[in-house]
Design brief:
alpha+beta; single chain; four-stranded antiparallel beta sheet; 10 strands
Length: 231
Amino acid sequence: MKTNRNFITFQLIKRIRNLYKLKNPPYLDLDTHFPEYRILEENWEQIRDEIVEIIKNSASLPKFHEIDSAQDFISNNDGISWNLFVVKLYDLIHKSNADKCPKTFSILNSIKVVKTINFSILAPGKHIPAHRGPYRGILRYQLALEVPSDDDCYILVDDKPYHWKEGKSVLFDDTYFHEVHNNTKSRRIALLLDIKRHDFTLTMKLFDAFYFRIIQLSIIISGVMKKSKVN
């Protein structure tokens, strides 16, 4: 299977990921791990309206691989767009983008376990190949905001399918292999969050805090905030 990292980086990430020694199923219970999801579901239409307005009023939103070239394999694989609107990355706030969605940002910025806030827009026909997330310190949350009316738009996590429903949430461990299919003629919009997990030993908590700072530094050095600015 191809990877979206060079060999050395891939092996380093793999070794660090294995240090965490965590055991959990691919999909996780929202009430247990992220009970704040209820706040988002209660306000999902306002959140949807803000991103739809941003898409409408912006010349274009950057594609994932334009923000992070390491994601070329999973974003630029089929000539079909996977666009991201970045609001926060690992606690680094994208001020100009956050100003465009004040209601969404106000809700989420008060939830301290939320470390990353992105809107993900999949064009009709988009396929995101199977891949694994690099970092075990987070869980991935998705709130479906706009979903094609037919049933052929879904995610597979560890080969287990989940079909999005507008206004509904799902939480999963993205270090399992996962892939996405939008085999429809309509776009799919979702709110993507990284939720900080804390089910570590004390030693791993110390390591994780250090590793989190390294990730932040890499984001700053690579100029991700500049690349993800939307006019």
